[in-house]
Write a structure and sequence with these properties.
This protein is 42% helix and 23% strand. By secondary structure, the protein is of the alpha+beta class. The chain has a five-stranded antiparallel β-sheet with strand order 2-1-5-4-3.
């Protein structure tokens, strides 16, 4: 054993060397092994976590990290709980550097003489150095003020964010950085914080060096030092961008609300301004088309009058759809509920729409289950749902096609209506768009004759949802579309069979 090795092994204070990366013990002298109450085989080549309790391990590892980051010696106090008989009051932890300046090893030397005041001084210096580093590297602005409100220290983040030079800030009154409308309240609050020591947080406006105003979020804490000197530590976070976003969102909401109100007013006015003249146009054109008061003369007049009548009816239909959707969106439609005879209602819709289908060379076919129970609902809206769906099916069907209208009971007690066509269909990715107000699923010129307001399906869906019913749509391009309306079981009015009171009668009928 060389002289240096013998010196290391036999020196009268615990000492061990650890690796910088994994904190593995590379060498330890006799007193270090006695301190840990372990043999060399149990220490050398092992990480410190393998032979220290949890508290001591964390204490050493945190100190190692400080030593590595600062690349200079630190001093720590020893913690109780080490099993050996050697009493150590602290450790010097020093980095051993490579020629490149990187830390190669960490040298740990125990302190046996607690009376050495230089140890305590070094610990205080290290603590101050650590706190100073935290103060300066923080990305949050920090301002320290005395009991009179004068700034005694600011960190780099505050200087960088608000543009003031450090010399301009130190010894200045902190309330001078605030906008004039906040200064008086800030002075009162400051005196309260210093007097009571309470913590506080809130928002304040700080004037930047360039004259602009920053919205900030602050927190305060009172710090009392020797001779009962009190200081206020204030952290400041700039939230100007967040405030601007909030204001933009608020303005956008106000504009949207105003636009919605304007739309409602416009639609309410349009109800009177457009419906009244349209009804007059339709009425007079019908009389002229039918030549109620005698012939008009040239046959072209009759043809043109038919066009006027058709256009007026189409325009009135569009206006009614827009107004109905507006009322539903505004929550201004209430259900006028009663008992709806579904069979009679559906057959009446089929008869009503048959002429339109016939004009388009479309065949309507009904498949309505016999002895359907009645439905609790608004008869006008249920009728309108079916008219919209059948009208859409006829519009999007090809000449010679068939539209099926059906209704039946499901096994779970719900009632389901169905409208199926063999038309152009809807691409799967555009089904949701078709259910949105004014949604058009085809923008191709060749399909322009299929275009409408885009409100037929959304209106049917909204009216169904007013009845707590579900509208479900299935479609394939060039194969057709099927729409299902499913009413909840609690809306079904069941009818019990009752026999007529005749002795020989075997006839049974269904009565409500």
């Amino acid at each position: 054993m060389s002289g240096l090795e013998s010196y290391f092994t036999k020196m009268q204070i615990p000492r061990f060397i650890v690796s910088a990366d994994e904190h593995t013990v590379l060498a330890a002298n006799d007193l270090a092994m006695k301190y840990f109450d372990r043999s060399s085989e149990q220490i050398i080549g092992h990480k410190i976590q393998n032979f220290m309790d949890h508290e001591n391990r964390l204490h050493f590892e945190q100190s190692f990290e400080v030593c590595l980051s600062k690349k200079r010696s630190v001093t720590i106090q020893a913690l109780p709980g080490v099993p050996g008989n050697v009493r150590v009051y602290g450790f010097y932890i020093s980095p051993i550097l490579k020629e490149s300046g990187e830390v190669d090893y960490i040298d740990v030397i125990g302190q046996l003489d607690v009376a050495d005041q230089s140890i305590l001084q070094r610990e205080r210096d290290d603590a101050i150095s650590l706190l100073t580093s935290i103060f300066e590297v923080s990305e949050v602005g920090v301002v320290v003020t005395d009991q009179n409100g004068s700034i005694v220290r600011v960190n780099d983040s505050f200087v960088r964010t608000y543009g003031w030079a450090r010399d301009e800030l130190v010894n200045a009154d902190i309330t001078g950085l605030l906008t004039p409308d906040e200064r008086e309240g800030a002075r009162r609050n400051y005196e309260e914080y210093i007097r009571t020591g309470i913590r506080s947080s809130g928002e304040m406006k700080i004037i930047r060096k360039d004259g602009s105003v920053a919205n900030t979020l602050f927190t305060t804490a009172t710090l009392e030092l020797s001779q009962r000197r009190r200081f206020l530590v204030t952290t400041v976070m700039d939230i100007t961008l967040r405030k601007q976003m909030e204001q933009s969102l608020r303005m956008a909401k106000d504009q949207a609300d105003a636009a919605n109100r304007a739309k409602s007013v416009f639609l309410a006015n349009m109800s009177h301004e457009l419906r009244t003249p349209l009804n007059a146009i339709i009425g007079f054109s019908e009389m002229m088309h039918k030549e109620t008061f005698g012939p008009m003369g040239h046959e072209k007049y009759g043809e043109y009058m038919g066009d006027v009548l058709s256009s007026a009816r189409h325009l009135l239909e569009i206006i009614n759809e827009v107004l109905d959707m507006s009322k539903i969106e505004a929550g201004r439609i209430d259900l006028d509920e009663g008992e709806v005879d579904v069979q009679i209602l559906m057959k009446s819709v089929v008869r009503m729409m048959d002429s339109r289908a016939f004009g388009n060379n479309i065949k309507l076919q009904d498949n309505i289950q016999e002895t359907l129970p009645n439905l609790q609902g608004d008869q006008r809206l249920v009728r309108q749902i079916l008219i919209n769906l059948v009208g859409n099916a006829v519009k999007f069907s090809r000449p010679g096609g068939v539209v099926l209208i059906g209704c039946y009971m499901l096994d779970d007690g719900r009632m389901q209506m169905q409208v199926r066509d063999e038309g152009v269909g809807i691409p799967h990715e555009k089904i949701q768009q078709a259910l949105e107000p004014f949604g058009q699923v085809s923008d191709r010129p060749e399909n322009s004759h299929y275009q409408g307001t885009g409100l037929g399906l959304p209106l049917a869906k909204a009216m169904a949802e007013l009845h707590e019913a579900e509208l479900h749509l299935e479609s394939e391009v060039e194969q057709g579309t099927t729409v299902y309306i499913t009413f909840p079981s609690w809306r079904i009015i069941l009818r019990k069979p009752r026999k007529f009171p005749y002795p020989d009668s075997t006839t049974t009928t269904l009565v409500s």
